[in-house]
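Structure in, sequence out. Go:
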């Protein structure tokens, strides 16, 4: 059943989607927007090309399975399998859709790192590249918990990006997960990573920001979950740094400025300076109260 969905003005200026449409000679932009109306409230849909075509492109003479494959090869949709049935979802769903609370709950199973179908990297034509399972996939629970093929089963690898449009490497999920120091919540973190790529965030800016976060995080503060790091755009933080690469506390700043002869004016009578690692306070001296 088709549903009312939101489309933002910037959708029509999506350069990567436009280039994909030109390359594949398929109506990807209209099909992608139509696909939103076929999704449930969680952005999931049954991977049934014939039925989806009726909702998205009922009058076009086009093989909709090729449309889905082209979108999947570039990360616009993710394909997964549960109990022998194939499904799809839109990784950027939560960034663009506001769902009515009265809409029916999803009846489709969720995606996770163990049920995503993988694709070999695209060579010339995304539509002509067959979907393949990761090694050992489909053998029930035989490989559960062993971590085999984890990096390939973690998400669909989109096509290698055009250098002029996208500076993200083809194995960006592997690189990010390998580098991030606090490895928790992998499936959600990788889906968020997909979303910011589609938003046009620079890979170099992201990784420079991660380096900066790892270098300046105070030792007494816990590591952010990777999903939180991405959601809050913490790669854009610019914390204060000193030569040794550690963030500088207020007390340290005060001590350094005092040593340099920097004066903040006369100290009020009867007050004493109390310094801690993160604060500098002036409190009444003993007997002056």
């Amino acid at each position: 059943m088709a549903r009312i969905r939101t489309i933002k003005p910037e959708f029509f200026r999506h350069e990567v989607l436009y280039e994909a449409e030109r390359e594949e000679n398929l109506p990807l932009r209209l099909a992608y927007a139509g696909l939103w109306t076929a999704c449930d409230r969680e952005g999931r849909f049954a991977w049934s090309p014939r039925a989806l075509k009726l909702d998205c492109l009922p009058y076009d003479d086009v093989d909709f399975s090729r449309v889905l494959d082209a979108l999947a090869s570039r990360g616009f949709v993710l394909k997964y399998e549960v109990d022998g049935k194939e499904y799809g979802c839109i990784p950027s769903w939560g960034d663009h859709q506001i769902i009515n609370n009265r809409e029916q709950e999803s009846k489709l199973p969720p995606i996770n790192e163990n049920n995503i179908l993988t694709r070999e990297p695209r060579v010339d034509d995304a539509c002509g590249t067959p979907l393949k399972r990761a090694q050992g996939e489909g053998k029930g629970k035989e490989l559960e918990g062993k971590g085999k093929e984890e990096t390939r089963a973690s998400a669909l690898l989109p096509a290698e990006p055009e250098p002029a449009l996208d500076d993200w490497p083809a194995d960006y999920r592997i690189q990010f997960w390998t580098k991030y120091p606090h490895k928790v919540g992998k499936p959600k973190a990788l889906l968020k990573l997909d979303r910011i790529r589609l938003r046009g965030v620079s890979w170099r800016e992201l990784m420079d920001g991660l380096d900066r976060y790892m270098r300046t995080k105070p030792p007494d503060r816990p590591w952010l979950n990777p999903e939180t790091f991405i959601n809050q755009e913490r790669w854009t933080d610019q914390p204060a740094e000193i030569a040794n690469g550690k963030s500088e506390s207020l007390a340290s700043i005060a001590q350094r400025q005092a040593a340099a002869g920097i004066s903040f004016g006369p100290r009020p009578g009867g007050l004493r300076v109390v310094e801690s690692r993160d604060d500098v306070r002036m409190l009444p001296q003993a007997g002056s109260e």
